[in-house]
Specification:
With 283 residues, the chain is α/β, with parallel strands linked by helices. Among the domains are: 1-78, Orthogonal Bundle (Arc Repressor Mutant, subunit A), CATH 1.10.10.10; 160-258, D-Maltodextrin-Binding Protein, domain 2 (3-Layer(aba) Sandwich), CATH 3.40.190. The protein contains ten helices and eleven strands. It has helices at 2-14, 17-24, 28-42, 58-78, 99-112, 125-134, 176-182, 193-204, 218-226, 271-281; strands at residues 47-50, 53-56, 88-94, 116-122, 139-143, 153-168, 184-188, 210-215, 232-236, 246-249, 257-265. The strands form three sheets. Strands 3, 4, 5, 6, 9, 10 and 11 form a seven-stranded mixed sheet that branches. Helix 8 (193-204) links the parallel strand 7 and strand 8. Helix 1 packs across helix 4 (58-78) and helix 1 (2-14) runs parallel beside helix 10. The radius of gyration is 21 Å and the shape is elongated. This is LysR family transcriptional regulator.
């Protein structure tokens, strides 16, 4: 049942039999058959099926953690080598604003795969996309591209973040449009996918910001706003805690989002990479 459990993890992460089939180089019917055999062996269904999309039901969510543990344990056995064999290296690209997500996932990953060395490659999403496509890195934690996902690559969503305006806590005014027009603007760099979304948003709203500085580091942008250097529009997690010197303002009906996720090749992936992806997707 190990093969069926691995396929189950792919379907759970990717949300469809078709995407999982592409990842493991099988037909969709073969993947469906593996899931059916697993469900028959367990005695209950694992997914709610709605058209092409599937989602874990209550039983599936309960089985997920156990399946990850079993697959990880088998991988540990298969990776047992003598000390003279070179260690496994996993090349992980990440944007700067996703370091927190990656750090939390690494805590679980290091416990399950202590023999795997992680090499972290920081860059902007556009260059990370190219690096995954050319095989320079194995996976990238990045912003979903504004264009379609290349056919040779696979996308696994992790989190959806709402854009908000941030301003110094002592700055008067609570109308985000007025603040963009009247205050120095700390711009999220336009060469990045996330910054390009801000630029398109301002154009749609027919707003011309008073650009003061432009950079790709969201933490540094927040620090500049806290220092009183202007206002900014950045993606913010719903449960994010801002520094005491920074407040956020919603964009109302004009709100827009960015999606962070994992970009990989569509070829079959090793268990340690699947485990890292599952840790992030099901965090």
């Amino acid at each position: 049942m190990l093969t069926e459990l691995k396929t189950f993890l792919h379907v759970a992460r990717l949300g469809s039999f078709a995407a999982a089939a592409s990842r493991v180089n099988l037909t969709q019917s073969a993947v469906s058959g593996q899931i059916r055999r697993l469900e028959d062996a367990l005695g209950f269904p694992l997914f709610d099926r709605s058209g092409r999309a599937v989602s874990l039901n209550r039983n599936g969510k309960r089985v997920l953690a156990g399946a990850e543990t079993v697959v990880a344990a088998f991988q540990k056995l298969s990776d047992m080598t003598d000390e003279n064999v070179a260690p496994v290296v996993l090349r992980v690209g990440t944007i700067s604003s996703a370091h927190g997500l990656l750090t939390r996932a690494m805590q679980t990953f290091r416990r399950d795969f202590p023999h795997v060395q992680l090499r972290i490659v920081p860059d902007i999403s556009l260059r990370l996309l190219d690096k995954v496509d050319t095989g320079e890195i194995d996976v990238a934690l990045m912003v979903r591209p504004p264009f379609g996902i290349p056919s040779a690559l696979a996308w696994s969503p992790v989190v959806r973040q709402r854009y908000r305006l941030i301003k110094p806590a002592d700055m008067p005014g609570d109308d985000w449009r007025t603040l963009v027009l009247t205050q120095p603007f700390v711009r999220y760099e336009r060469t990045s996918f996330g910054g390009r979304a801000v630029d398109l948003f301002l154009r749609r709203c027919d707003l011309v910001a008073n650009d003061h500085v432009e950079m790709d580091d969201i933490v540094a942008i927040r620090d500049m706003v806290e220092a009183g250097l202007g206002v900014a529009i950045i993606p913010v997690d719903d449960d994010a805690v801002m520094p005491p010197g920074v407040v956020t303002l919603p964009l109302g009906d004009d709100v827009f989002y960015r999606e962070l996720g994992l970009m990989t090749g569509r070829q079959s992936t090793p268990a340690h990479l699947d485990a890292l992806i599952s840790t992030l997707v099901h965090r």
